[in-house]
Amino acid sequence: MEIEEKNVQSNSVVDGNFEEVCPEKIIKFKPPLYKQRYQFVRDLVRRHEPKKVADLGCGDTELLRLLKIYPCIQLLVGVDIDEEKLQSNGHHLSPYLGEFVKPRDLDLTVTLYHGSVVERDSRLVGFDLITCIELIEHLDSDHLARFPEVVFGYLSPVMIVISTPNSEFNPLFPIVTLRDADHKFEWNRMEFQTWALQVANHYNYSVEFTGVGKPPAGAEHVGFCTQIGVFRKNSREAPGPCVSEQHDHHVYKAVYTTSYPSLQQERVLKFELVGEVLFQVEHLRLRHLRTLREEKRGAGTVPVPKDPSVAPSLMLGALFTEAEKARIENSPKPFCEGGRFFVPLQRLLAYPRLHRLPVDEERMRSLLADSVCLSSDGSAVTVDLHNTWDCDPEDN
Amino acid sequence: MTGRARARARGRARGQDEAQHMGAALSQQPGYPQPRLPHPLAEGDLVGRGRQRGAAGATAKSQELQISAGFQELSLAERGGRRRRDFHDLGVNTRQSLDHVKESKTGSSGIKVRLSTNHFRLTSRPQWALYQYHVDYSPLMEARRLRSALLFQHEDLIGRSHAFDGTILFLPIRLQHKVTELSSLTRNGERVRITIALTNELPPTSPTCLQFYNIIFRRLLKIMNLQQIGRNYYNPHDPIDIPNHRLVIWPGFTTSILQYENNIMLCTDVSHKVLRSETVLDFMLNLYHQTEGHKFQEQVAKELIGLIVLTKYNNKTYRVDDIDWDQNPKSTFKKADGSEVSFLEYYQQQYNQEITDLKQPVLVSQPKRRRGPGGTMPGPAMLIPELCYLTGLTDKMRNDFTVMKELAAHTRLTPEQRQREVGRLIDYIHKDDNVQRELRDWGLSFDSNLLSFSGRILQTEKIHQGGKTFDYSPQFADWSKETRGAPLISARPLDNWLMIYTRKNYEAANSLIQNLFKVTPAMGIQMKKAIMIEVDDRTEAYLRVLRQKVTSDTQIVVCLLSSNRKDKYDAIKKYLCTDCPTPSQCVVARTLGKQQTAMAIATKIALQMSCKMGGELWRVDMPLKLAMIVGIDCYHDTTAGRRSIAGFVASINEGMTRPRPGAGGRTQGVPASGSAGVEQLQRVHAEPDHCVPGRRGRRPAEDTGELRGSAVLGLPEVPRERLQPKTDSDCGEETRERQIFCPLWRKTSEPPARDCHRRGGHQARVVRLLHREPGRAERQCVPHTLQCHLRQQRPEAGPHPAADVQALPHLLQLAGHHPRPCAVPVCAQAGLPGGPEHPQRAKPVPVQPPLLPLTSPAAARFPPSLPGCQAFTVTFLGETWEEHG
């Protein structure tokens, strides 16, 4: 994260994710400041692995788009007062094609609500993380006064991230008084920290201050361009009585909602399981054929390579950890019987790609039953050893 | 669309189709037409309209001035940047004024039936107009997003509905003043003056509006949460899993909005996207075990280059252009901000994607287009195989009966199902409030019912074979039973021919020969014993034998193949097409296995062989004398420099039963080779033993070798230029989306087969449907053409080659006013996919362009059949028709 200073005209004022610029002397953050803010949240998500995350004032849903890739998150909510923005950006949050091909482990639901952060909606109670990125400076004094009561008091998430401009940085931007026409105020560090500490104390949170957008050399005293407060709830007791009182208090209007395919869904699990089994069986079968071929050719003359997966010209294939290797070796081996190739289910389950799936042998058997040919006792998957489509390496 | 089809479409999009799919191209920036939209031109400025030359051009011009004044401001030749297709046909709006067109399109013979198409009418308010403005900034602002942001600070004035590309603004309203001056503030307090000047008021039928409709429609599809893949939109909420084959099918739609005669219509069809849950790395690993170590890299390149892969993390698709074996996930690259990062770290940080195999190579994908007009070419995309998923079907899957059967169960729809599916799109549109609001704001709406009109089922033609005349049941579109035992019109004796087989298939080869001996006498084919050659089951062995045994006296080579392996087939065909042109017939041994069908198959093989050697099977009555019908097909090679190859075939006798093939390489689109081919063929006709053509026709199917029966029939008075393939090939593309439903036959769910193609036999027939409504508008067609596109509507009958049929009005007139029908059965006499020969479905062998000019002596030896250039004979039925003109 560094700053570039240039004396050129820049047009980087873009859709709210603006970089603080001026025509004469540009302070250009690298990566752009908004990205640094999002990166801050992403790092936090990666570290704390929250399950339920809400972004208040989500705007064009950019942050949510970045967060949906994290496997820990199962509920992702965005709230904004601009309904049209939510409507036009909702589709960005729908699952990608790849999500159907390679589904997540855990369910994920993404919902966008139209509403104000100073209104209480019970659907946002009990979250693990609520982010308010560049939000509070848009609130007028009345709303700002009600904001802590709703977010800290009512929604009461485990963690809250609040970011806001640091006005001490502003003199480095020549023309700027306020960084956005809609900003109702911009606080210096003292003002923000005073407010934050007061709120934290009142609602039993602890708060740490940091920021993104380092000041240029020589101006270190002004602090980060964006100041951030990370609030953590001190006690982790069950939600207070006010929650049950207000149960099912729906004020927000759901504008968009989508749910992702995941291995928690039977249909998806089956698809994934069958796919991985077929891949693994095919892989083992081809490897077996190759070994047979090499044995036949190498009989007497060239010694058979010990590890058939290592070719002279290249190495391909995921490396197994020692534990994985041991698990595979300890499972029953694939075998051949009368032109059929058998891979025991236990063996299959030992491979990491199947091991990670939430199935045991019994479940696996029932899920595979109508898609894959099983041996008569149901303990192994079986396929023809030879397939008309196999390429004969000698025939090229 | 399969990966290959997509690649195909892409390949094409670079050339002549570009303008046609403007909407599609623009949709990349939803809602923002790119600044290539036409600027007003000086009045009467018609230069740059390409093909209008000579006298015909001059008359057409004057007509054009009267009729299509509205188009004058729109010379698409003026578009900057990339080469655009000539929009000459845009201006030709002459159909109604030609007397032979007035009535001819309705027809009079046959039985009237009610048909519906997959079109919905787009309607606008009365007096609707689209207002086009030009927006200027002072001081100049460059970034498009900034320009938009500044402009839409004045949303109260402009209104909620707008389409803006940074320069051109479309609004449904007329601003109070012709020129509006506004002032906006940038974030850093700079004042910018914006000038919005009205440049155009467009009627609903203006071509610019068509682009606009497409942009708006794509916006609607987005609002409905349909996902765009390529040009099509898919519904992510309803995937169909086929776990056994690791496939996911997404149902979706292809759409386009175009003008058809008097109406603007939305044309939509059901499309399915096949996704595979197999990564490129999985694929490589399995290939690895099937390849010798030292050939592995070569093999991987052969299998992967040209494929389209999907990256899970960013929802994009890429074409694999190369494989970089020197790099691996630990290699670093320079990010846009200049910092070095390894692939491993980058994918972890950016997308939370883990790469487990650190020894895999890296895929290279070259970008297709520049960034923005005049922008720089972005560097190649480097992709990690483990994170890339394969798309489309492999040849292996295509040839796997069980895969195709399962796919077919989900993707092959009966007319009713198709109608229902298409109707669902319109339902979505009508039910979604946001979509309705957007449409309302623009003052547009869609009909809720499919377009319906009447067509005619024409009488069954009579088949002539061996001096006899046969009727057949149109229900099955097959007359092999009726004509069994009758001699062919003409057949070459089979004196010197080879049968190549492997040891394993000795029995099959023998029984095929015996069966051929049983069936050929009745057909009038004199057959001598084949030279039997046994080979090892290896490509090399086949080729060695071919090199040794095929001589200039060899009439045909029959190869019995032990499997559907494509490489072997390709190698054989390549040798016998380019290196040593000789007719050949490949048969997969398995097809001969069944006792009960052995004779039928032998019959079909005999017919194919006969055709390939220049024999004639059967004919129907031709109303046209002295006509020559030319078929053209193109193959776009997605690998190796995206070369395209055109193949030709022309009828050279009066009964249109004798074909004459030719082929030409090309890189610049069909026209170059097309016109060359037509000229060559003309010269052929000058040869004494051929009847001299009074008329020429051609069959365009700008499609990757997928066989489509289609015909354009040219008339002598139509200037040659009009017959240039350029325009026609566009039709080929466009018609694919149009389809005719047959609600009348709903009950039986089996439309009379005369409206479908029949595969598997050698016949494919199309019946001309005469209809008024959805005849294409003047855009992009050969003027005065009417085309209809009939798709196989018998889902059980296998994948369908769709048929595009076009005919010039004289022919229609002929059809419409003669008491007996004039149908156009299209007969692919040789190598029709699905026949007993190994089906080369989507991809004919990319033969090296056998650039044998037909005028050269070598032409005499040119085989009558090329894969990729199947012989077609188009015949007409009907009353004897005196030629006039």
Automatic annotation (TrEMBL), chain A:
It comes from Heterocephalus glaber. Its EC number is 2.1.1.386. Keywords: Magnesium, Metal-binding, Methyltransferase, RNA-binding, RNA-mediated gene silencing, S-adenosyl-L-methionine, Transferase. GO terms for molecular function: metal ion binding; RNA binding; small RNA 2'-O-methyltransferase activity. It catalyses: small RNA 3'-end nucleotide + S-adenosyl-L-methionine = small RNA 3'-end 2'-O-methylnucleotide + S-adenosyl-L-homocysteine + H(+). CDD domains: AdoMet_MTases (cd02440). GO terms for cellular component: cytoplasm; nucleus. Its cofactor is Mg(2+). Pfam families: Methyltransf_23. It comes from the Eukaryota. Transmembrane segments: none annotated. This is Small RNA 2'-O-methyltransferase. The gene is Henmt1. It is an enzyme of class 2 (transferase). Belongs to the methyltransferase superfamily. HEN1 family. Signal peptide: none annotated. One of its GO terms (biological process) is RNA methylation. Methyltransferase that adds a 2'-O-methyl group at the 3'-end of piRNAs, a class of 24 to 30 nucleotide RNAs that are generated by a Dicer-independent mechanism and are primarily derived from transposons and other repeated sequence elements. This probably protects the 3'-end of piRNAs from uridylation activity and subsequent degradation. Stabilization of piRNAs is essential for gametogenesis.
From TrEMBL, chain B:
Residues 1-13 have a biased composition (Basic residues). It comes from Heterocephalus glaber (Naked mole rat). Residues 556-653 form the Piwi domain. Belongs to the argonaute family. Piwi subfamily. Residues 279-392 form the PAZ domain. Its main location: cytoplasm. This is Piwi-like protein 1 isoform X1. Gene3D superfamilies: 3.40.50.2300, paz domain. One of its GO terms (molecular function) is piRNA binding. It is found in: Cytoplasm. Pfam families: ArgoL1, GAGE, PAZ, Piwi, Piwi_N. CDD domains: PAZ_piwi_like, Piwi_piwi-like_Euk. GO terms for cellular component: cytoplasm. SUPFAM superfamilies: PAZ domain (SSF101690), Ribonuclease H-like (SSF53098).
